[in-house]
Amino acid sequence: MSAPLIDKYRKMATFDWRKLKAAVEGEEHVRLKAEVVAKMKSEPIFHRDYRVLSREEHREVVHQRWKKIVEWGLFKDPYSDLENFHALTETLEAYDQGTSARLFLHGNVFGAAVKSMGTERHKELVEKIENNEVCISIRDSAHSHSATHVVVYAQLHVDGKNEGLHGFVIQVRCPRSFQTLPGITIGDMGSKPGCWQGVENGWMEFKNHRAPLSALLNKGCDITPDGKYVTSFKSASEKQSVSLGTLSVGRLGIIAKGMMACTFASTIAIRYSVARRQFGPEKGVENEVPVLEYPLQQYRLFPYLSAAICIRIFQKTFVERFTEYMMRVMMGEKSEELSEFSKEVHALSSGAKPVATWLGVESLGEARKACGGHGFLHMSRLNTLRDDNDPSQTFEGENFMILQQTSNILLGKVRSLGSIDTPMSTMSFLNKNPSKFSSWSSNPVDDVLSAYRYLAYHLLQMTASDANKLKNSGKNAFEVRNEIQVHRAVNLSIAYTEHTMIDWVQKFLEDVEDSTVKNVLQKVLNLFSLFLLERHLATLYITGYASGGKFGEELREKLRLAVAEIKPESMALVDSIAPDDFILHSALGASDGRAYDHIMEEFRKYTNEQPRWVCDLAQFLQKRSQHAKL
């Protein structure tokens, strides 16, 4: 129980962590989050210990917390009060993803679907959604106990013709009795790991259910009273853009889950690594050093610290651009440019969601191992968080599957190489055939981006070439699409996404005014970009970007140097991203650095326990003793 060293590490920093937090998140966002935390601390329903709840207990407490948040009346429409909404959802995501899901899915995903695809005839329902007079869900995540309405995506058949995928909003229960309506059966999916035990994922079956015509979300299309299908969309792609964009909103939220996972992993493990001392240059307990001093521990943890910060910056930028897109959709705009905007949003969200969530889950696994046996304890929260974030890899589409959405859109640009122009300019770098590696410059991020441009361009060419060969050999479109994924389309989607992430963070840094904050964020981006690129080393060599071992060895040398440069800044960087201890809820990761005090405090709650089965054990041992004497 030695004195904590955490403050010693904090004093090593070259910057004020509060200024960095304000620069990355925005002062107003930081203030609003603090207000939400204060509200939560004042309500007993949000206080918790490390006890594991049953499914029924978990769902009831999520319901009670959701009800309390609704009673606070912070906002009605997420898009009219984005600052409050983002502050609340981020705080809840860190506190408990189950509670966050209850709020976010209702207000931002399902509500947005009705608003963006509905018309004046859905105005009354939108008001009820905003006032929380109904509980609305979506078909693939239906709330098994509480949903009164659902948004269903289904094929619309009119006069024997399939008009394609459309959105419908359908009432499934009476909001007073909660009895299901005729022709509808709803059930639960059973127990799940982590916080998702508190979320009512369910299944729904329709049998001869008749819904009114008003169920069709009819922005841009409708069925006339005499049964004719009409549409104002000029093309199928324009019609698809409305639903594609709406579906992307969920993926943007899931990108933030990856960021939050990296935040928790690095906060808990780095703070614990200062408290945990082991070995030293000389024998004796007094000579033991914090495990954070070991370069291998730094190499295992610091890249995820950089990922937490860089993914946050990227996601914040993406949300701003997506909000612009959604406002144009809700205003009823129909244009080829907006259709192109939708495709780009869809391509990037389908790539960024896998990249961010894979990093997040990976970070929690590494953090848990880096904390040794104590990381395995429930009170560390690392294992629970790993369970909580595991499904982020399959939410809104399994990661490998939705990466195909990204590569499909990129492959569609092959014929336009040289003249690609998209609203967010994430694909314009593909217009030029990039050069091979020659030498490193003074800016490693520029060098990394150059390598990514080469990688993405050549992966696009190779994937397109393989697709043409397969097509010419007689393969159908389904076979072609499946056979170009391994080593080709998947890598292409990831390279395009990671290039955009790094590029957007670099552009963000250009506008940071405080020089000390800017310098440390540059160190963070250096590490993040080198860490990601190193994973593509083999493919870079295969595609001819470099030859010989020099490029690879220098890349790894720069990566090790980038890790070392983060070390004196690491504790202040953790402080800049760490949630309040009340939200963090980890004995290992508390901000006071007294991990072992908190561990022992929890241990002592189980002093001299006498479980009921001990009596049975005593009787069993006595019988065995008597049997032995015979």
Q: Can I get a quick summary?
A:
With about 625 residues, the protein is mainly α. Helix content is about 60%, strand content about 5%. It has helices spanning about 5-10, 15-25, 25-40, 55-70, 80-95, 95-115, 125-130, 235-275, 295-330, 335-370, 380-390, 400-410, 445-470, 475-485, 485-510, 515-535, 535-540, 550-565, 570-575, 580-585, 595-605, 615-630; strands at about 135-140, 150-160, 160-170, 185-190, 200-205, 220-225, 230.
Task: Please name the defining characteristics of this protein.
630 residues; Butyryl-CoA Dehydrogenase, subunit A, domain 3; two-stranded antiparallel ribbon; single chain; three-stranded mixed sheet
Helix share of residues?
55-70%
Q: What is the CATH-assigned architecture of the largest domain?
A: Up-down Bundle
Care to count the β-strands?
7
Strand order of the largest sheet: 1-2-3
Quickly name the level 1 CATH class of the largest domain.
Mainly Alpha
How far apart are the termini? Answer: 51 Å
Overall mean pLDDT stands at: 91
CATH superfamily of the largest domain: Butyryl-CoA Dehydrogenase, subunit A, domain 3
Any low-confidence stretches, pLDDT <50, length ≥5?
none
List SSEs in N-to-C order. Answer: HHHHHHHEEEEEEEHHHHHHHHHHHHHHH
Helical stretch count?
22
The main β sheet shows up as: 3 strands, mixed
- The tally of domains stands at 2
Principal-axis shape: globular
CATH topology of the largest domain: Butyryl-CoA Dehydrogenase, subunit A, domain 3
Strand content: 5-15%
Query: What structural class is derived from the secondary structure elements?
Result: mainly alpha
From the alpha carbons, calculate the radius of gyration and give it in angstroms. 27 Å
GO molecular function: FAD binding; fatty acid binding; pristanoyl-CoA oxidase activity
Pathway: Lipid metabolism
InterPro entries: ACOX_C_alpha1, Acyl-CoA_Oxase/DH_mid-dom_sf, Acyl-CoA_oxidase, Acyl-CoA_oxidase_C, AcylCo_DH-like_C, AcylCoA_DH/oxidase_NM_dom_sf
Active site: 396 (proton acceptor)
